[in-house]
Amino acid sequence: MVLHANRPSVQALQPSLIRKLANTAIGRSDVIPLWFGEPDKPTPQFIRQAAKDALDEGQTFYQPNLGIIKLRQALATYMKDLYGTELSSENICVTPSGMTALALALQCIVAEGDAVVIPSPVWPNLPAAAEILGAEIARVPLRPRCGHWRLDLDELFAACKPNTSALLINSPNNPTGWMLQDAEQRLILDFCRERDIWLIADEVYSRIVYDRDYAPSFIDKVTEDDKYLIVNSFSKSWAMTGWRLGWLTAPKSLVRTLEIVTEFNYSCIFAPVQIAGITALQGGEEFICASSARYRAALTAVERAFGELPRVTFPSPQAAFYAFFAVDGVTDSYDFAENALRQCGVGLAPGAAFGPQGEGYLRLCFAADVSLIERALAQMKPLLI
Length: 385
Ligand SMILES: Cc1ncc(COP(=O)(O)O)c(C=O)c1O
What we know:
This protein has about 375 residues and is an alpha/beta fold. It folds into two domains: about 10-45 and about 285-385, Aspartate Aminotransferase, domain 1; about 60-280, Type I PLP-dependent aspartate aminotransferase-like (Major domain) (Aspartate Aminotransferase, domain 2). The chain is built from 13 helices and 14 strands. β3, α6 (about 125-130) and β4 form a beta-alpha-beta unit. The structure holds pyridoxal-5'-phosphate.
Protein backbone atom coordinates (compact mmCIF):
# COMPACT_ATOMS: atom_id res chain seq x y z
CA MET A 1 0.00 0.00 0.00
CA VAL A 2 1.30 3.47 -0.86
CA LEU A 3 0.57 5.98 1.87
CA HIS A 4 0.54 9.73 1.28
CA ALA A 5 1.05 12.56 3.73
CA ASN A 6 -2.21 14.01 4.95
CA ARG A 7 -1.24 17.64 4.67
CA PRO A 8 -2.14 18.96 1.19
CA SER A 9 0.86 21.31 1.03
CA VAL A 10 3.18 18.33 1.65
CA GLN A 11 1.36 16.15 -0.88
CA ALA A 12 1.85 18.87 -3.47
CA LEU A 13 5.64 19.08 -3.00
CA GLN A 14 7.76 18.00 -5.94
CA PRO A 15 11.25 16.55 -5.46
CA SER A 16 14.17 18.86 -6.25
CA LEU A 17 15.21 18.30 -9.87
CA ILE A 18 18.85 18.72 -8.80
CA ARG A 19 18.59 15.71 -6.46
CA LYS A 20 16.46 13.76 -8.96
CA LEU A 21 19.16 13.94 -11.62
CA ALA A 22 22.08 13.47 -9.22
CA ASN A 23 20.45 10.37 -7.70
CA THR A 24 20.73 8.63 -11.08
CA ALA A 25 24.54 8.72 -11.00
CA ILE A 26 25.74 9.77 -7.54
CA GLY A 27 29.05 8.23 -6.52
CA ARG A 28 29.96 7.11 -10.06
CA SER A 29 33.71 7.53 -10.51
CA ASP A 30 33.36 8.25 -14.26
CA VAL A 31 31.24 11.38 -13.60
CA ILE A 32 32.58 14.84 -12.71
CA PRO A 33 29.94 15.96 -10.20
CA LEU A 34 29.31 19.69 -10.51
CA TRP A 35 25.59 19.56 -9.70
CA PHE A 36 25.58 20.38 -5.97
CA GLY A 37 26.64 23.67 -4.45
CA GLU A 38 29.61 22.76 -2.36
CA PRO A 39 33.38 23.17 -2.30
CA ASP A 40 35.32 20.09 -3.45
CA LYS A 41 37.73 20.18 -0.48
CA PRO A 42 36.95 18.99 3.07
CA THR A 43 36.63 21.45 5.98
CA PRO A 44 40.04 22.88 7.02
CA GLN A 45 41.95 20.67 9.46
CA PHE A 46 42.03 23.22 12.34
CA ILE A 47 38.22 23.34 12.36
CA ARG A 48 37.90 19.56 12.30
CA GLN A 49 40.39 19.29 15.15
CA ALA A 50 38.33 21.61 17.37
CA ALA A 51 35.30 19.32 16.98
CA LYS A 52 37.40 16.23 17.71
CA ASP A 53 38.78 17.80 20.89
CA ALA A 54 35.27 18.74 22.07
CA LEU A 55 34.07 15.19 21.47
CA ASP A 56 37.05 13.71 23.32
CA GLU A 57 36.32 16.04 26.24
CA GLY A 58 32.87 14.46 26.43
CA GLN A 59 30.80 17.39 25.19
CA THR A 60 27.84 15.21 24.31
CA PHE A 61 25.04 16.85 26.32
CA TYR A 62 21.95 18.92 25.44
CA GLN A 63 22.74 22.58 24.71
CA PRO A 64 20.79 25.88 24.95
CA ASN A 65 18.04 26.34 22.32
CA LEU A 66 19.61 29.44 20.79
CA GLY A 67 23.11 27.97 20.67
CA ILE A 68 26.17 28.03 22.93
CA ILE A 69 26.60 31.57 24.22
CA LYS A 70 30.27 31.68 23.14
CA LEU A 71 29.23 30.93 19.55
CA ARG A 72 26.50 33.58 19.62
CA GLN A 73 29.07 36.08 20.94
CA ALA A 74 31.62 35.03 18.33
CA LEU A 75 29.00 35.56 15.61
CA ALA A 76 28.15 39.03 16.96
CA THR A 77 31.87 39.90 16.94
CA TYR A 78 32.33 38.47 13.44
CA MET A 79 29.48 40.59 12.06
CA LYS A 80 30.62 43.66 13.97
CA ASP A 81 34.14 43.34 12.53
CA LEU A 82 32.81 42.75 9.02
CA TYR A 83 29.94 45.23 8.84
CA GLY A 84 30.66 47.64 11.70
CA THR A 85 27.26 46.98 13.30
CA GLU A 86 26.33 47.02 16.97
CA LEU A 87 24.54 43.67 17.00
CA SER A 88 24.76 41.62 20.18
CA SER A 89 24.52 37.90 20.89
CA GLU A 90 20.85 38.53 21.73
CA ASN A 91 20.25 39.17 18.03
CA ILE A 92 21.47 35.69 17.12
CA CYS A 93 19.91 32.24 16.95
CA VAL A 94 22.31 29.45 15.93
CA THR A 95 20.60 26.86 13.73
CA PRO A 96 21.40 23.35 12.46
CA SER A 97 22.03 24.63 8.89
CA GLY A 98 21.10 27.58 6.71
CA MET A 99 18.19 25.50 5.42
CA THR A 100 16.79 25.16 8.94
CA ALA A 101 17.34 28.89 9.53
CA LEU A 102 15.20 29.53 6.46
CA ALA A 103 12.49 27.12 7.59
CA LEU A 104 12.38 28.61 11.10
CA ALA A 105 12.26 32.18 9.77
CA LEU A 106 9.28 31.26 7.59
CA GLN A 107 7.57 29.37 10.43
CA CYS A 108 7.68 32.57 12.48
CA ILE A 109 6.24 34.78 9.76
CA VAL A 110 4.17 32.93 7.19
CA ALA A 111 0.62 31.67 7.72
CA GLU A 112 -1.60 29.56 5.42
CA GLY A 113 -2.85 31.71 2.52
CA ASP A 114 -0.11 34.36 2.82
CA ALA A 115 1.84 35.32 -0.26
CA VAL A 116 5.66 35.29 -0.27
CA VAL A 117 7.44 37.25 -3.01
CA ILE A 118 10.74 35.76 -4.27
CA PRO A 119 13.14 36.97 -7.00
CA SER A 120 13.79 33.99 -9.25
CA PRO A 121 15.58 31.86 -10.58
CA VAL A 122 16.35 30.76 -7.07
CA TRP A 123 17.46 27.68 -5.11
CA PRO A 124 14.29 25.52 -5.01
CA ASN A 125 14.36 25.12 -1.22
CA LEU A 126 13.38 28.76 -0.66
CA PRO A 127 9.94 28.59 -2.29
CA ALA A 128 9.42 25.00 -1.10
CA ALA A 129 10.00 25.96 2.56
CA ALA A 130 7.25 28.59 2.23
CA GLU A 131 4.93 26.29 0.27
CA ILE A 132 5.04 23.65 3.03
CA LEU A 133 3.47 26.26 5.29
CA GLY A 134 0.63 26.83 2.82
CA ALA A 135 1.96 30.06 1.34
CA GLU A 136 1.45 31.05 -2.27
CA ILE A 137 4.60 32.06 -4.10
CA ALA A 138 4.93 35.09 -6.36
CA ARG A 139 8.15 34.88 -8.36
CA VAL A 140 9.68 38.07 -9.73
CA PRO A 141 12.09 37.44 -12.63
CA LEU A 142 15.76 38.28 -12.51
CA ARG A 143 16.82 39.13 -16.06
CA PRO A 144 20.18 39.30 -17.78
CA ARG A 145 20.99 42.84 -18.92
CA CYS A 146 24.36 44.11 -20.24
CA GLY A 147 26.07 40.85 -19.25
CA HIS A 148 24.80 40.74 -15.63
CA TRP A 149 21.63 39.61 -13.86
CA ARG A 150 19.33 42.41 -12.64
CA LEU A 151 16.17 42.81 -10.59
CA ASP A 152 13.63 45.47 -11.51
CA LEU A 153 12.64 46.91 -8.12
CA ASP A 154 9.39 48.38 -9.45
CA GLU A 155 8.41 44.90 -10.58
CA LEU A 156 9.37 43.51 -7.17
CA PHE A 157 7.27 46.07 -5.33
CA ALA A 158 4.31 45.65 -7.70
CA ALA A 159 4.29 41.91 -6.94
CA CYS A 160 3.52 42.63 -3.26
CA LYS A 161 -0.23 42.32 -2.62
CA PRO A 162 -2.27 42.92 0.55
CA ASN A 163 -1.77 39.26 1.60
CA THR A 164 2.03 39.40 1.14
CA SER A 165 3.63 38.72 4.50
CA ALA A 166 7.26 38.43 3.41
CA LEU A 167 9.79 39.32 0.78
CA LEU A 168 12.25 36.44 0.55
CA ILE A 169 15.43 37.56 -1.16
CA ASN A 170 18.51 35.49 -1.82
CA SER A 171 21.46 37.76 -2.61
CA PRO A 172 24.12 36.77 -3.59
CA ASN A 173 21.89 34.48 -5.54
CA ASN A 174 22.06 30.78 -6.18
CA PRO A 175 22.07 29.99 -9.15
CA THR A 176 22.78 33.25 -11.04
CA GLY A 177 25.44 35.00 -8.91
CA TRP A 178 23.26 38.14 -9.00
CA MET A 179 23.97 40.50 -6.12
CA LEU A 180 21.91 43.39 -4.72
CA GLN A 181 23.74 46.69 -4.35
CA ASP A 182 23.64 48.75 -1.12
CA ALA A 183 21.35 51.41 -2.60
CA GLU A 184 18.88 48.76 -3.79
CA GLN A 185 18.87 47.16 -0.33
CA ARG A 186 17.99 50.53 1.23
CA LEU A 187 15.06 50.95 -1.16
CA ILE A 188 13.80 47.44 -0.40
CA LEU A 189 14.03 48.02 3.32
CA ASP A 190 12.16 51.33 3.00
CA PHE A 191 9.44 49.55 1.03
CA CYS A 192 9.10 46.82 3.68
CA ARG A 193 8.86 49.46 6.41
CA GLU A 194 6.22 51.39 4.52
CA ARG A 195 4.13 48.31 3.71
CA ASP A 196 4.74 46.48 6.99
CA ILE A 197 6.15 43.43 5.20
CA TRP A 198 8.80 41.15 6.69
CA LEU A 199 12.14 40.94 4.96
CA ILE A 200 13.76 37.51 4.97
CA ALA A 201 17.23 37.79 3.44
CA ASP A 202 19.24 34.69 2.57
CA GLU A 203 22.90 35.77 2.63
CA VAL A 204 24.65 32.40 2.76
CA TYR A 205 26.99 33.40 -0.10
CA SER A 206 27.96 36.70 1.54
CA ARG A 207 31.69 35.82 1.63
CA ILE A 208 32.04 34.39 -1.86
CA VAL A 209 32.31 37.58 -3.86
CA TYR A 210 34.59 38.50 -6.74
CA ASP A 211 35.42 42.17 -6.48
CA ARG A 212 35.22 42.85 -2.77
CA ASP A 213 35.59 41.12 0.63
CA TYR A 214 31.90 40.67 1.34
CA ALA A 215 28.59 41.21 -0.39
CA PRO A 216 26.33 44.16 0.44
CA SER A 217 24.22 43.04 3.39
CA PHE A 218 20.98 44.06 5.05
CA ILE A 219 22.80 43.54 8.38
CA ASP A 220 24.31 47.02 8.43
CA LYS A 221 21.00 48.67 7.39
CA VAL A 222 18.40 47.21 9.75
CA THR A 223 17.41 48.42 13.24
CA GLU A 224 15.73 46.79 16.23
CA ASP A 225 12.39 48.14 14.95
CA ASP A 226 12.63 46.53 11.53
CA LYS A 227 10.81 43.34 10.65
CA TYR A 228 13.76 41.33 9.38
CA LEU A 229 15.37 37.91 9.55
CA ILE A 230 18.75 37.26 7.96
CA VAL A 231 19.75 33.71 7.11
CA ASN A 232 23.37 32.65 7.09
CA SER A 233 25.39 29.44 7.08
CA PHE A 234 28.83 27.97 7.77
CA SER A 235 28.44 25.67 4.76
CA LYS A 236 29.83 27.75 1.92
CA SER A 237 32.33 30.21 3.48
CA TRP A 238 34.13 27.67 5.65
CA ALA A 239 33.50 24.54 3.51
CA MET A 240 31.31 22.98 6.22
CA THR A 241 28.36 21.71 4.16
CA GLY A 242 28.04 18.35 5.93
CA TRP A 243 28.21 19.76 9.47
CA ARG A 244 24.79 21.44 9.29
CA LEU A 245 25.44 24.75 11.03
CA GLY A 246 23.93 28.16 10.31
CA TRP A 247 22.49 31.17 12.07
CA LEU A 248 19.68 33.71 12.01
CA THR A 249 20.09 37.38 12.83
CA ALA A 250 16.87 39.11 13.91
CA PRO A 251 15.54 41.77 16.31
CA LYS A 252 16.04 40.70 19.94
CA SER A 253 12.33 40.36 20.60
CA LEU A 254 11.96 37.93 17.70
CA VAL A 255 14.99 35.95 18.85
CA ARG A 256 13.11 35.34 22.11
CA THR A 257 10.28 33.87 20.02
CA LEU A 258 12.79 31.80 18.07
CA GLU A 259 14.00 30.32 21.36
CA ILE A 260 10.54 28.77 21.80
CA VAL A 261 10.20 27.73 18.16
CA THR A 262 13.61 25.98 18.11
CA GLU A 263 12.64 23.86 21.15
CA PHE A 264 9.78 22.32 19.19
CA ASN A 265 11.80 21.79 16.01
CA TYR A 266 15.18 20.34 17.00
CA SER A 267 15.76 21.65 20.57
CA CYS A 268 19.51 22.15 20.27
CA ILE A 269 22.66 21.51 18.25
CA PHE A 270 25.52 19.07 18.94
CA ALA A 271 28.21 20.92 20.95
CA PRO A 272 31.28 19.77 18.95
CA VAL A 273 29.68 21.19 15.79
CA GLN A 274 29.10 24.53 17.50
CA ILE A 275 32.67 24.59 18.83
CA ALA A 276 33.91 23.95 15.29
CA GLY A 277 31.86 27.01 14.31
CA ILE A 278 33.60 29.21 16.91
CA THR A 279 36.99 28.03 15.62
CA ALA A 280 35.97 28.74 12.01
CA LEU A 281 34.92 32.29 12.88
CA GLN A 282 38.09 33.02 14.83
CA GLY A 283 40.66 31.54 12.47
CA GLY A 284 38.94 31.21 9.10
CA GLU A 285 39.66 34.49 7.29
CA GLU A 286 42.75 33.15 5.55
CA PHE A 287 40.76 30.17 4.30
CA ILE A 288 37.99 32.44 2.98
CA CYS A 289 40.54 34.55 1.09
CA ALA A 290 42.30 31.54 -0.40
CA SER A 291 38.98 29.95 -1.42
CA SER A 292 37.82 33.13 -3.15
CA ALA A 293 41.07 33.25 -5.15
CA ARG A 294 40.63 29.59 -6.14
CA TYR A 295 37.02 30.12 -7.23
CA ARG A 296 38.03 33.27 -9.12
CA ALA A 297 40.57 31.20 -11.11
CA ALA A 298 37.91 28.60 -11.88
CA LEU A 299 35.46 31.31 -12.95
CA THR A 300 38.07 32.77 -15.30
CA ALA A 301 38.51 29.33 -16.89
CA VAL A 302 34.73 29.05 -17.41
CA GLU A 303 34.53 32.56 -18.88
CA ARG A 304 37.40 31.79 -21.25
CA ALA A 305 35.85 28.51 -22.44
CA PHE A 306 32.31 29.88 -22.84
CA GLY A 307 33.66 33.02 -24.55
CA GLU A 308 34.77 30.80 -27.44
CA LEU A 309 31.38 29.14 -27.82
CA PRO A 310 28.86 31.32 -29.72
CA ARG A 311 25.92 29.13 -28.69
CA VAL A 312 26.55 29.77 -25.00
CA THR A 313 25.22 32.84 -23.16
CA PHE A 314 26.80 33.33 -19.77
CA PRO A 315 25.80 36.45 -17.78
CA SER A 316 28.72 37.05 -15.44
CA PRO A 317 28.18 36.16 -11.75
CA GLN A 318 29.25 38.81 -9.24
CA ALA A 319 29.31 36.31 -6.39
CA ALA A 320 28.70 32.67 -5.32
CA PHE A 321 30.37 29.80 -7.19
CA TYR A 322 28.01 28.95 -10.02
CA ALA A 323 28.06 29.35 -13.77
CA PHE A 324 24.42 29.69 -14.85
CA PHE A 325 24.49 29.54 -18.63
CA ALA A 326 22.08 29.11 -21.53
CA VAL A 327 22.75 27.14 -24.70
CA ASP A 328 21.14 28.40 -27.86
CA GLY A 329 18.35 26.05 -28.94
CA VAL A 330 18.06 24.27 -25.56
CA THR A 331 14.53 24.47 -24.18
CA ASP A 332 14.51 21.42 -21.89
CA SER A 333 17.28 21.84 -19.34
CA TYR A 334 16.62 18.48 -17.63
CA ASP A 335 17.00 16.69 -20.94
CA PHE A 336 20.23 18.60 -21.67
CA ALA A 337 21.62 17.82 -18.19
CA GLU A 338 20.80 14.12 -18.70
CA ASN A 339 22.72 14.20 -22.00
CA ALA A 340 25.68 15.98 -20.38
CA LEU A 341 25.73 13.19 -17.81
CA ARG A 342 25.31 10.31 -20.24
CA GLN A 343 27.40 11.51 -23.16
CA CYS A 344 30.06 13.69 -21.46
CA GLY A 345 30.27 12.36 -17.89
CA VAL A 346 29.57 15.80 -16.38
CA GLY A 347 26.93 16.33 -13.67
CA LEU A 348 25.09 19.66 -14.03
CA ALA A 349 21.97 21.02 -12.34
CA PRO A 350 19.08 21.69 -14.76
CA GLY A 351 17.93 25.34 -14.77
CA ALA A 352 14.28 24.28 -14.48
CA ALA A 353 15.07 23.26 -10.89
CA PHE A 354 15.30 26.97 -10.04
CA GLY A 355 11.80 27.85 -11.25
CA PRO A 356 10.28 28.63 -14.66
CA GLN A 357 12.68 31.58 -15.01
CA GLY A 358 15.59 29.12 -15.01
CA GLU A 359 14.35 26.90 -17.85
CA GLY A 360 16.78 26.82 -20.78
CA TYR A 361 19.74 27.33 -18.40
CA LEU A 362 22.20 24.93 -16.76
CA ARG A 363 24.09 25.41 -13.50
CA LEU A 364 27.69 24.30 -13.09
CA CYS A 365 29.28 24.61 -9.64
CA PHE A 366 32.91 25.72 -10.13
CA ALA A 367 34.04 25.46 -6.47
CA ALA A 368 36.85 23.16 -7.52
CA ASP A 369 40.39 23.17 -8.90
CA VAL A 370 40.80 24.83 -12.30
CA SER A 371 42.13 21.58 -13.77
CA LEU A 372 38.92 19.71 -12.93
CA ILE A 373 36.72 22.52 -14.28
CA GLU A 374 38.78 22.63 -17.49
CA ARG A 375 38.41 18.88 -17.90
CA ALA A 376 34.63 19.10 -17.41
CA LEU A 377 34.38 21.95 -19.93
CA ALA A 378 36.44 20.02 -22.49
CA GLN A 379 34.25 16.91 -22.04
CA MET A 380 31.07 19.01 -22.47
CA LYS A 381 32.31 20.84 -25.56
CA PRO A 382 30.67 18.51 -28.13
CA LEU A 383 27.25 19.42 -26.69
CA LEU A 384 27.99 23.14 -26.77
CA ILE A 385 29.39 23.74 -30.25
C1 LIG B 1 20.70 30.14 -1.41
C2 LIG B 1 20.94 29.09 -0.38
N1 LIG B 1 20.45 29.28 0.85
C3 LIG B 1 20.64 28.39 1.83
C4 LIG B 1 21.37 27.25 1.61
C5 LIG B 1 21.49 26.29 2.74
O1 LIG B 1 22.77 25.94 3.12
P1 LIG B 1 22.99 24.92 4.30
O2 LIG B 1 21.67 24.31 4.64
O3 LIG B 1 23.99 23.94 3.81
O4 LIG B 1 23.51 25.74 5.44
C6 LIG B 1 21.90 27.00 0.33
C7 LIG B 1 22.63 25.75 0.02
O5 LIG B 1 22.89 25.40 -1.11
C8 LIG B 1 21.69 27.95 -0.68
O6 LIG B 1 22.17 27.78 -1.92
